[in-house]
Amino acid sequence: MKKTKIIELDEIDSTNEFCKRMNFEEDVIVVAKRQVSGKGTNGRSFSSGAGGLYLSVMRKYKNFDFSNTFSIMINACVAVCRTVEHFGLKANIKWANDVLVNGKKICGTLIENRLSADNICTSIVGMGINVNNVLPDELTDIATTMSAEKHGKKFSVRRVRDQLIKNLSRQYTVDDYKKYVDWFGKEVWLDRNGVQTPAIALDVAADGTLVCNVAGQIRKISSAEMSLRLKCKSI
Q1: CA torsion 187→192→193→197, rounded to 10°?
Q2: What are residue 109's DSSP bridge partners?
Q3: What are the start-end ranges of the H helices in 107-156?
Q4: Cα–Cα dist 122/19, whole Å
Q5: How far lies 104's CA from each of 32, 65, 126, 164, 193, in Å?
Q6: Strand 53-65 to strand 104-116: parallel, antiparallel, or no bridges (unpaired)?
Q7: 12-71 per-position pLDDT tens digit
Q8: Helices in the chain by DSSP H: which ranges?
Q9: Residue 213's CB: how many other CB atoms inside 10 A?
Q10: Residue 198: partners with Cβ closer than 8 Å, 6 or more residues away
Q11: What is the pTM of this model?
């Protein structure tokens, strides 16, 4: 990724929403110290208190076929994993776009693409990394922070930000993504609107589909169709 303008904000509703409102003509990175209306996937709220890293990357594309959209998610997830690793934490990916540490969510990713015909013309990738922020009580069983994983150590959010931006400048492959998957060959739950089906997770294909053994049949599942629930944690 070429050198990109960085916009720093103290507080905003959502860095993704800010990017959409401004509709920048060039690639930008928007960073906020706090979000008051942070968004997760499927419209869920995302806890975004002071002490976390909340960042959106808005990129413009030409001739980027929609069939390659999973590559955007690969780059975001692997960049986050490598960032928390840089600070001494072991990261894993829960398909399709959550990053976990010790089985708990440390980062969520929200990707919003704008299409022109069959091409992606604009992509906004929002990432929220729990660094030193205090999580609501109702999230402590399923989410964690970098500070909590290091027994209260405080991290420089700016250093975490700079490392993430550095890692986002690289290009990654689906093999890089799968290096952070530790649940292949294990029983998982496939969740569709609260209805859960047991399956054995086998692979993640290059197009982002999850390859599973469901009741003896090999199926490819899209993240738009179902979500993944790991048996150890209900995230």
Answers
A1: -40
A2: 127
A3: 146-149
A4: 11
A5: 23, 33, 19, 20, 22
A6: unpaired
A7: 999 999 999 998 999 999 999 999 876 655 555 566 789 999 999 999 999 999 999 999
A8: 15-22, 70-86, 146-149, 157-168, 174-178
A9: 15
A10: 187, 188, 189, 190, 214
A11: 0.92
